[in-house]
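User: Please fill in residues for this 204-position structure.
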């Protein structure tokens, strides 16, 4: 089983809103944490939904202190979405474990943006438990998703990131993505308008 070992921790949180096949597990070590990444199983759907809810709420509070929390999808609806995604591989899903506990996940596949080539991949979603921010979870998930996208024949990858959410913006800068300044768009989360920017990088 191959291992990927890194000497620095990385962080990430909130990004949006074929069966996975054989994807090897990867390991990422920060100064104090070993993170294992593996393909998600249907039984992980509930935990994934809980992580998404906790991370989304924490990230929103950090980006919009004092503002009313928007309505996010119910845990039941989110759990159903991720169970179906895991079953059908749309998107592909990996989870990160620390000491046997699922602490984060990433969903990725071909780009959903219109008029993009089949070789363009996309990080659809990436979340970690707030208690594990800064412990290498995001870096480990990115490593696993990147290698799987390369195996699928993708040569580039994108990710939509909320402007103003410095934690995620810094992560993608550190991971070698470039900001596409002409891509900025406004989306609604509840009654709150959020601007997002697309990041892109080569996989080859």
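Assistant: Residues filled in for all 204 positions:
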């Amino acid at each position: 089983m191959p291992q990927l070992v890194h000497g620095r921790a990385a962080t990430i949180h909130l990004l949006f809103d074929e069966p996975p096949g054989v994807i090897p597990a990867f390991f990422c070590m920060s100064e104090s944490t070993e993170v294992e990444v593996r393909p998600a199983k249907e039984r992980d759907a509930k935990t994934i939904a809980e992580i998404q809810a906790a991370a989304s709420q924490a990230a929103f509070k950090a980006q919009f202190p004092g503002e009313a929390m928007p309505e996010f999808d119910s845990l039941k609806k989110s759990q159903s979405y991720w169970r179906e995604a895991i079953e059908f591989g749309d998107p592909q899903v990996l989870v990160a474990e620390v000491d046997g506990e699922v602490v984060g996940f990433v969903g990725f596949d071909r780009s959903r943006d219109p008029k993009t080539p089949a070789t363009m991949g996309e990080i659809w979603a990436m979340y970690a438990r707030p208690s594990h921010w800064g412990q290498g979870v995001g870096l480990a998930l990115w490593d696993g998703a990147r290698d799987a996208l390369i195996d699928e024949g993708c040569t580039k990858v994108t990710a939509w990131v909320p402007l103003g959410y410095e934690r995620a913006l810094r992560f993608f800068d550190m991971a070698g993505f470039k900001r596409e300044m002409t891509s900025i768009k406004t989306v609604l989360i509840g009654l709150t308008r959020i601007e997002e920017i697309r990041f892109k990088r080569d996989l080859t």
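For context: Strands lie at 26-29, 34-39, 92-98, 101-110, 120-128, 156-162, 178-189, 192-202.
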